[in-house]
Design brief:
355 residues; alpha+beta; 3-stranded antiparallel sheet; 9 helices; 9 strands; elongated
């Protein structure tokens, strides 16, 4: 049987121990360096997390609410900011104008049922008629701290307030006003009431605008009747506008014609007055001459009157002695014919006048 044994060499025992110690030292030094490297990496990771956690940015249309140990502090605006990691927390709030519909389905609310929409839009008027009215509400965050911490669902509170105010105001108007002529006034009253209610609730929201999108009766037959009424009203307005247009065209024309007649009358009046004054002056002059020589004045007036009464008639005046040839006044052609034919003119057709 073969026996296994190791030969003992006294001179090599110290060398073996030294080599074993060196190997143990090398193994211990490598473990320490790896541990130190891991610690450095962990420290760097912690510093990186702390560095990135302490820097945050706020957008142009945002505001940030900084809380320290859960207590709301400052409100920061857009830009780059710093906070204490694990101590402070930042909640970003959108400050743009937002909105929601009342009474109809929007693109972001496709799951809403028709019954829910009817419940929102169906209302009763002061004359006990039913009407479907749709609104769109626009709002924005006015106070981020109150918006985040004064209520759990501020948008739902605003919607409830809007629905309450809408029903309250609609119930004060007749169905005709709601559907046709009173929309702008109704919107203004609803907006004013909502603003008052929001100030009382103080939930950090402000109303920007509320607009009535549509208003119609709940049945087709009533809708057609209201359309016919609206068409008749439009026809009435058209007729009134046409009549006003015709009146505006004719009144200036009649006024101009009246002014022209008045001016012509004033001119004729002035002409008659001037003529009367001239005739009076002429009469006074003739009367003065008449007082000086009445007979001569009478004859002159007679001759002038005859010239006016018989225009174009030539008068031959003689003294009755018979020394002048008495002929009728004829035009030149007749005179030439008479002269050529040597016709005799009857003496009883001759005009005579005494001097």
């Amino acid at each position: 049987m073969t026996q296994n044994f190791r030969e003992f060499h006294p001179g090599n025992s110290s060398g073996n121990e030294e080599s074993n110690n060196q190997n143990k030292t090398a193994k211990g030094g490598g473990g320490n360096s790896i541990g130190r490297l891991a610690a450095v990496i962990a420290a760097l990771l912690v510093l990186a997390v702390l560095a990135f956690g302490s820097v945050y940015s706020i957008g142009e249309q945002e505001q940030g609410v900084v809380t320290t140990f859960g207590n709301a502090g400052s409100v920061v605006t857009s830009g780059l900011h710093f906070k204490i990691p694990f101590v402070q927390r930042v909640t970003k709030v959108n400050t743009t104008i937002l909105g929601f519909p009342i009474g109809y389905r929007s693109g972001s609310d496709e799951n809403a049922s028709q019954e829910q929409i009817d419940d929102e839009s169906l209302m009763i008027t002061s004359d006990f008629n039913f009407v479907n009215v749709d609104f769109y509400v626009e709002y924005k965050v006015s106070d981020p701290v109150k918006y985040l911490y004064h209520s759990k669902q501020p948008q739902q509170i605003l919607k409830n307030i809007a629905q309450s105010c809408i029903r309250n105001i609609i119930s004060n108007y007749a169905v005709d006003d709601v559907i046709t002529t009173g929309k702008s006034k109704i919107q203004a009253e609803i907006k004013e009431m909502i603003i008052e209610k929001l100030e009382e609730q103080d939930i950090g929201l402000m109303l920007v605008n509320i607009s009535m999108q549509d208003a119609e009766p709940p049945t087709e037959a009533v809708i057609e009747a209201f359309k016919a009424v609206e068409t008749a009203k439009q026809g009435k307005e058209t007729a009134i506008n046409n009549a006003n247009k015709y009146r505006n065209e004719k009144i200036p024309e009649a006024s101009a014609k009246a002014d022209r007649i008045t001016q012509d009358a004033e001119a004729a009046k002035q002409e008659r007055v001037n003529e009367g004054i001239a005739q009076a002056a002429r009469f006074n002059e003739m009367f003065a001459e008449y007082e000086k020589n009445p007979l001569l004045t009478k004859q002159r007036m007679f001759y002038e009157a005859m010239e006016e009464v018989l225009p174009g008639v030539k008068l031959i005046i003689d003294d009755g002695s018979g020394n002048l040839n008495k002929t009728l006044y004829l035009d030149e052609l007749q005179l030439e014919d008479i002269t050529d034919n040597h016709a005799e003119v009857p003496s009883d057709e001759t005009a005579q006048e005494e001097d």
